[in-house]
Amino acid sequence: MWIKILFSAIFLSASTFLFLKFDFLKELVQTPPPPPPVEEKNLPSDEDHAEIEKIIASNLGEEIEKYACYVFRPQKELTPVIFQSRKMKPASMIKVFVLAKAMQDIKDGKLSLDEKIVLAPENVVGGAGSLSGEGYYAEIPARTVLEHMIAESDNTATNMMIDRLGGLESINEYLKAHGYADTEMQHKMMMGESYGLSNYSSVKDLGTIFTKIYKHECVDEYYDKIMIEYLLKQEDKDCFPAALPNWRIAHKTGEVLGSYHDGGICYGKDEDFIIVIMINDYYDRQQTITNMQNIARQISQLD
Question: Are strands 67-72 and 259-267 parallel, antiparallel or unpaired?
């Protein structure tokens, strides 16, 4: 009898051990190992904001109140530095929003890059660009119109695209829907001054759209990459590209008498940054460009 009891006790002990062991192994298999510790020094923070603001302010001289700046380093900061943002006349930088609206319409099936757009006489204007020489009623693919609008800052191409997108009202609806509160189109290119109309934007809105394009959060990854390719073809290289010759810069400039702007995405070897600088009513064009170049160069050299 006692032998039977002993064997029963041994069996129960062994069964309990195996059950506990199996349950422990099961827990090991189902529970993933903890992630490796993250080095806090590599996490983005806003500790460098003060240094960036100092760089901006120290390079603007006596006309500091006329400037506005946006700087964002996605690998280093959580939020951008926005310096004196306000509504300003953006000149040709407004074309970035037209480009974004066009890409959204293409994604939504309202437009195709291969669609032919007719060059109507009323859209032919002077200023930058070569499409005005194509001749009235020429049929030009939308992809060509968009490329000319950005790379050459073609005013005629922009007017063609504005009409194809449904006019100024349609573009302003897009701007409002996407939160660009400081941006408004009151006239097509080269058609506003005689009527006392102005287009408006701000470094905040322009910096935001460039940041969205960079992060592929404007339309989507596919169409945002197309926009970046257009912006990389920008032919005006007087400002940021001249200051940062070893960087790939997807940008758009804007210039009319007394106003100069440049902004976009600067792709570096190890990190990138978005920068927009605007000024209305400057005294000296070359000094303005030099000031802007110094800011971009010093930002690119920050640790």
Answer: unpaired
For strands 248-256 and 116-118, give the pairing.
unpaired
What one-letter code names the amino acid at 108? D
Q: Confirm if 98 and 65 have CB atoms less than 8 A apart.
A: no
**Paired residues of 117 in beta bridges:** 140
Report helix, strand or coil for 83.
strand
pLDDT, tens digit (0-9, with 9 covering 90-100), for 162-218: 999 999 999 999 999 999 999 999 999 988 776 789 999 999 999 999 999 999 999
Residue type present at position 17: F
Residues 53-76 pLDDT 10s: 999 999 999 999 999 999 999 999
Query: Rounded to whole angstroms, how far apart are CA atoms 248 and 265?
Result: 8
Distance of alpha carbon 167 from alpha carbon 143, whole angstroms:
18
Instruction: Kindly write down the DSSP assignment for every residue of 251-267, as one continuous string.
Output: EEEEEETTEEEEEEEEE
The pair of structure tokens assigned to 295 is 């800011």
Q: What CA–CA distance (Å, rounded) separates 70 from 204?
A: 6
pTM assigned to the model = 0.85
Q: Are 92 and 253 in contact (CB under 8 A)?
A: yes
Query: Which sign does the torsion angle of CA 123, 205, 115, 166 carry?
Result: negative
